[in-house]
Structure to design on (258 residues):
C-alpha cells in the first residue's frame, strides 16, 4: 500500500505524521519505506538524525537518472539502490536532498511526472510505503499523488486551514481525473486538536457535517513531538507509553483496518 501525506499548507505536521505512522507500521512487523520528497528533508532528519549527513544516495539521484536517460540512453536505475536503513527494524527511508530544487524545472519540461510511479511499480519487498511531500502542488507532490494508492490530509484546526482544505480537495479531484483514477482520499487527519477549545471542535464538526472524510482519530498537541524530533526518534520508540503515541497507534489502526 502506497500512502501520500499531502497538504498545500505548511506547518500542518506532514513529516511528523508520515514518520510516526511508518514507525508504527514497522513495529507491527511490516517492512515499511518512507520516501522524502520535501526539500526541507524533515522526514530524513527525523529518521536518520546525524546519519543524514552520510546519505549520499537520495531520491534526487533517481530523478537525475531519469533526465540522463534522454541524453545517454540506457535503463532507469531502480529505487532499491537508494534505500537507507534507519536505526529501527523494518523501517527504511529514501532520503531527500537539496538537489531536488534545481532539478524541478528540467523534470517538468521533460514531462517526467510518471517516473516515480514507474519506479515504485518495479520496487519489491515492502508491505507499506509512506511518501512525504512538499507543502505545495509542485512536480514532486504531483508525482507522489500519481504514484500513490491513498492520500492522507493533515488538518490543523484553524479557519485558514479549512479554506486551504477545500482547495486541496478540488486539486485531488483533478489529479484523480487526469492522472490517477485509483487515487483514494483515505481521510483527513485532525492534528493539533484541543478537545476543550470551541473553535477546533466547531471546525471538525462542520467538516463532518459537510460530508468530508474526517478520520475518527485525533492527534493532540504536545511538546513530546518536538522532543522526538530533536532525538530523531519516532514516538513509538521515544515515548511508547505516552498518550500521544497511543493516538498515533489509533490512527494507524483506523487507516489499516479499512
Amino acid at each position: 500500500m502506497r500512502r501520500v501525506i499531502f497538504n498545500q499548507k505548511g506547518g500542518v505536521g506532514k513529516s511528523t505524521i508520515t514518520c510516526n505512522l511508518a514507525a508504527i507500521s514497522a513495529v507491527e512487523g511490516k517492512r515499511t519505506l518512507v520516501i522524502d520528497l520535501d526539500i526541507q528533508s524533515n522526514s530524513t532528519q527525523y529518521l536518520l538524525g546525524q546519519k543524514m549527513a552520510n546519505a549520499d544516495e537520495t531520491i534526487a539521484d533517481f530523478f537525475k537518472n531519469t533526465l540522463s536517460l534522454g541524453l545517454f540512453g540506457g535503463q532507469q536505475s531502480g529505487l532499491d539502490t537508494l534505500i537507507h536503513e534507519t536505526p529501527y527494524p523494518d523501517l527504511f527511508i529514501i532520503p531527500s536532498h537539496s538537489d531536488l530544487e534545481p532539478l524541478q524545472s528540467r523534470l517538468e519540461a521533460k514531462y517526467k511526472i510518471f517516473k516515480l510511479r514507474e519506479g515504485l511499480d518495479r520496487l519489491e519487498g515492502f508491505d507499506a510505503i509512506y511518501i512525504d511531500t512538499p507543502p505545495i502542488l509542485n512536480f514532486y507532490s504531483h508525482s507522489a499523488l500519481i504514484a500513490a494508492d491513498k492520500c492522507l490530509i493533515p488538518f490543523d484546526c484553524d479557519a485558514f486551514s479549512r479554506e486551504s482544505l477545500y482547495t486541496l480537495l478540488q486539486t485531488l479531484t483533478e489529479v484523480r481525473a487526469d492522472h490517477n483514477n485509483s487515487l483514494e482520499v483515505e481521510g483527513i487527519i485532525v492534528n493539533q486538536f484541543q478537545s476543550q477549545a470551541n473553535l477546533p471542535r466547531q471546525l471538525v464538526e462542520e467538516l463532518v457535517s459537510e460530508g468530508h472524510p474526517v478520520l475518527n482519530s485525533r492527534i493532540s498537541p504536545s511538546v513530546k513531538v518536538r522532543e522526538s524530533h530533536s532525538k530523531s526518534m519516532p514516538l513509538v520508540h521515544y515515548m511508547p507509553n505516552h498518550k500521544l503515541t497511543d493516538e498515533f497507534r489509533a490512527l494507524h489502526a483506523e487507516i489499516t483496518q479499512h
